[in-house]
Design a protein that fits this description.
The chain has one helix and eleven strands. The protein is mainly beta.
């Protein structure tokens, strides 16, 4: 049974930084692709960044060079370091895990396992 618990969201001014964490509970994290999605009310959930089972990161274009995804397999924790935050980064951020790349890395929200979400609010 997989459980994901996010933390680290909050309110920040534009240009600021936040680090999100997602603790993974369950069988071998290395066997899963794991990543971050975000969603604003009225819009579809979109992929932000992900790490595949080989440890390769991918990013959606809008966050490249601003966000960094990383994973600690010993601590079973996924991180998302967000810098140069923009108003449009405001969203509920969700952690997702699934052994299938298509379900996480491709940016399509098809993962079997999701966290409860953590809110990020960027203000001017």
């Amino acid at each position: 049974h997989v459980q994901l618990v996010e933390s680290g969201g909050g309110s920040v001014q534009a240009g600021g930084s936040l680090r999100l964490s997602c603790h993974y509970y369950g069988p071998a994290l290395v066997a899963n692709c794991i990543g971050w999605f975000r969603q604003v009310p009225g819009k579809e959930r979109e992929g932000v960044a992900a790490i595949d089972t080989a440890g390769m990161p991918t990013y959606t274009y809008s966050v490249k060079d601003r966000f960094t995804i990383s994973k600690d397999n010993v601590k079973n924790t996924l991180y998302l370091q967000m810098t140069s935050l923009k108003l449009e980064d405001s969203a509920m951020y969700y952690c997702a895990a699934d052994p299938r790349e298509l379900a996480v890395v491709a940016g399509t929200p098809l993962a079997d396992h999701w966290g409860q979400g953590t809110q990020v609010t960027v203000s001017s």
